[in-house]
Amino acid sequence: MRGKHKVEPDETANFKFIGDMVQERTPIRKAQTAEGHAVLALYFYAGAADVAAETGEQELIDALDRLWGNVVNKKMYVTGACGQTHHGSSSHVDMIHEGFISEYMMPNLSAYNETCANVCNSMFNYRMLGLHGESKYADIMELVLFNSALSGISIEGKDYFYANPLRVSHKGHDPGNDTEFDVRQPYIPCFCCPPNLVRTIAKISNWAYSLSENGISVNLYGGNKLATKLLDGSKIQLKQETQYPWKGKVDITVEKAKKEAFDILLRIPEWASGSKISINGVGIGEGVVTGTYTTINRKWKKGDVITLDMPMDVKLLEGNPLIEEVRNQVAVKRGPVVYCVETPDLPENTDILDVYLPVQSNLTATFKPDLLGGVSTITGNLKLRKDTKEGMYTEVTQPTWETSEVQLVPYFSWANRGASEMSVWLPVVWE
Ligand SMILES: [Zn+2]
Q1: I need a surface site. Which of 14, 232, 324, 378 has the fewest CB within 10 A?
Q2: Is residue 415 a part of any domain in this protein?
Q3: How far is the CA of 163 from the centre of ligand 1 (A)?
């Protein structure tokens, strides 16, 4: 039925469930851009990818590739979150809510990023991984899971966010509605996000590995044990031991394997340049390329240990220059985890909007087992601007700075220490 309804010019006002809002304007095979309610859109794409996996229809796969590219390259946040606005309009000027707006229009304070939309983004990517077998899809699954999905639930697991903005300031953006909060809620009347997130967390073990033609691929890293069968029916058992994502070393022990040679594929994330793989302590040399799966084909035996070592450097990211909302700002990322500055880690009465990040701030990571359930924090010398500006526009004067050693925490862990202000993107001091 999609795309069959002819939308009249005045029909889409007042958030009627019509047009782009419900994926009704454009048939998916003709869709060029991701439109409408982000949850409805991404579930729709995930369902279409399931159909394509069964039928192999190229026109549908081409459309999904196009839509995936549009989401990931033009409408997705650095946390993997989707759905830039609570209320807005689509490219065809249909009124939409909780949805996609223009390309590169990525507000931070008012970002909506419904937990469900972020979770759906990982579900869509899991299906695209099944269609194409390319690691870039698992990279997005991981990005979402560690950041914009996990931010939806408290460390204790009892309270939930519906919206996941990238900046919260108590001075600005007070939406005053029943889905946007600055502390997680034990009960949300619009009840989709909490169960959607917890069922996804419960299901992640099913996403960690995939079967390939003659072997198995490791999509996600984390301590686990696997007991399953390859496609030829032979039994395989693996044990994965790691402190990932806080440490980049992953040991995978073969506990049971068939006698004949088969493939074990390891995902080398796009960010993990310099990664090394060894088998029983002997490096495999060439062939470890970021943004791909490394395929190791050999006769495996019980007790073989594959070690993947991913460098966990602290990295500063900047946005495409077309994203006006993050021009001259940077985000801090280590491995798959995006970080933020939160007011409990700032000198008292510091306004989150006055925190700047010098590009030479010597950021270092430390694992803190007793903080926020056990996380690695990142510490560096940040600059706090002390000359407060009032009014909409004021004449530029030389800023007054105070330097302070500040700890950044993983974005997913913010708002676990009471009501706070937070920012992922920080204005940069280029020095
Ligand atoms: Zn939801």
Answers
A1: 14
A2: yes
A3: 8
